[in-house]
Task: structure prediction
Amino acid sequence: MSHILTKYSVKKRHAEIIEIIKYLLETRSFLVFGSILSLLIIVAIFAPLISPYDPLGQNLSERLNPPSLKHLMGTDQFGRDILTRVMYGARASLTVAISSITLAALFGVFLGIIAGYIGGKLDTVISRIIDIMFAFPAVVLAIAVMAALGPGIVNVILVIVFVSIPQFVRISRASAIAEKEKPYVLAARSVGVSPLRIMFRHILPNTLSPTIVQFTVLMAWAILTEAALSFIGVGIRPPEPSWGFMLNEARNYILTGEWWIILFPGLAITISAFTFNFLGDTLRDALDPKIRRRARVY
Result:
């Protein structure tokens, strides 16, 4: 009986995945922002191969040069090529965002499903810890922890993991509570399927939709948080390129006419954050069966 239920569930899931992919490929916003994200990832991965200059190389004879054919985004106060530093900054930001939010999702979903399915004292303990963490603003908590740990990309990742876990715990816990009383779970339980298998074989795949949407939203938040931490000097250590620290260095030139120093790092942060937010909105619609059916009708 359990084998039949699992086989039916897998077939149904595969059909739904195919339907979601078709919807996404027919959605213009997904194609546009998916292309932008793909470009960002390619730039981040191949920055050493495609960047025109050394990101740390200084040339004071070319300091504060405006955008030109030689330096497409101009140079900074040390004569460093801004385009090159923006490319390497993409590598730092995406590394932090992808690593931290992936780890946070793994830990958060694991804790949330266990708390939601098992319930009782375990659920109470996990929920109270999460409530305490939610009592502090996320950015303030991140700054406080970074001040204790010190700057560095590894510490930035660990801090964002720590601050993001509660988001995934709360979502997966609520989904697990909603799913555990449904007929397919009761049927699996009645034929002797182990709780661990029910949680991660049956419940987990049916709770991924809100988790995936939250993942994309938190990716945008992680990029902004890394930039904020680097901007105030507790993030990635200089002189390693970071969009946030580049903005910090550009503060002194806002009113002196060197607009390119602050414009391009700011645009990189804005475009990256908007890309993940819009992708999250598109994925939310794609994962909602009612919206998919409505789109097919029209």
